[in-house]
Amino acid sequence: MIGRSRSRDERDYAALMAEASPDLLAYFERRVGADGADLLAETMLIAWRRRSELPREVEPARMWLFGVARNVLRNAARSELRRERLGGALREVLTARQVEDPADVVAMRDLLERLDPDLAEIVTLVHWDGWSLVEIGRLLGMPASTVRGRYQRAKEELRAQLAVRAPR
Question: Which residues cross the membrane (predicted)?
Answer without folding.
Answer: none
